[in-house]
Design goal:
10 strands
Length: 308
């Protein structure tokens, strides 16, 4: 049941109850207080998107491990950096540690020409509180996805620059904003991300596969060689998704359908933008502090497919 319907039902029940009460004004006042208290509690879970930098982000039952990891931060960072170098030949910068039930989730950002955000999970021995440096892992396919997305940005640099420039123009002209860079760094961890969109490259994408394989064999491969490896004949728009996420600039303002329709129409009509399946979403101003989530019941969205 969504929150709106919950309060409608609650209000009906309260009215029926108050019908049999002699002290109607006092009873009604208590009901309003309870409702306002619950609404305030929900509101406290959110923060203005312009202010949100990842503070308050939590993972289930991670409080104790969070403290252990912070106390041994240098050891955790060293283990994660070595893991990415060994497994992916990629140097990363560690931005944030968040305790989880079994250890700590470490949010990182690649520092090379193929740019992406990701995370690693470092176990902590619950008995000895020791960092299990040999057990560092990532969620299956997540780093690989980030590398593919970074490669798309690299070989289609002009098209993505056009998209970035366009979205910056929208934000300058409309009453919408994007996420903060700090929030992407500290709790994003989802491949190639900008303040205005994040990408999702599926493992079934055969067009980018030869580029990925070439890059993993030779990180120094020049850009022309990487471009030549790309197979446009195998491109399927479903395999590359570009999720545009905009937020209203002011608090307590509902998502603008006008902005959503403008962006969707422009994505459909503008030339020299990346191919793929676009999801254009406009949200209100709030971000859920514990989860980084901005899409809510009142958010609006539209899908556009660009094949050429």
């Amino acid at each position: 049941m969504n929150r709106k319907n919950k309060w409608i039902i609650y209000g009906i029940g309260l009215s029926l109850l108050l019908g049999g009460c002699m002290d109607m004004d006092n009873a009604n006042g208590n009901g309003v207080d309870e409702k306002e208290s619950a609404q305030n509690e929900v509101a406290a879970q959110y923060e203005r998107v312009q202010d949100y930098k990842g503070e308050g982000y939590t993972l289930n039952n991670g409080e104790e491990n969070d403290k252990i990891a912070e106390a041994k931060r240098e050891e955790v960072e060293k283990a994660v950096k070595e893991f990415f170098l060994e497994e992916y030949k990629t140097e990363v910068k560690v931005h944030n540690l968040v305790g989880n039930v079994d250890g700590v989730t470490v949010f990182v950002e690649s520092t090379g020409r193929v740019h992406f955000y990701s995370y690693a999970i470092v176990p902590i021995d619950q008995g000895t509180e020791e960092i299990v440096t040999g057990g560092v892992r990532t969620q299956e396919g997540e780093v690989e996805r980030g590398i593919r997305e970074g490669l798309y940005k690299l070989i289609f640099e002009d098209e993505f620059k056009n998209l970035d420039t366009y979205l910056e123009k929208v934000v300058s002209e409309e009453e919408v904003v994007g996420r903060t860079i700090e929030s992407l760094q500290n709790v994003g961890g989802s491949g190639n991300m900008t303040p205005y969109y994040f990408m999702s490259s599926l493992n079934t994408d055969e067009a980018i596969k030869p580029v990925y394989e070439l890059y993993m064999k030779d990180h120094e491969a020049n850009i022309d060689t990487l471009k030549q490896a790309y197979n446009p004949k195998l491109f399927n728009a479903d395999n590359l998704r570009i999720n545009i996420m905009l937020f209203m600039e002011k608090e307590n303002v509902p998502p603008s359908e006008k902005v959503m329709k403008r962006v969707a129409k422009d994505i459909e009509e503008l030339s020299a933008l990346p191919q793929g399946t676009y999801r254009v979403a406009v949200n209100d101003n709030g971000v859920h502090k514990e989860s980084f989530e901005g899409f809510k019941d009142n958010s609006i969205e539209q899908e556009i497919i660009r094949k050429e």
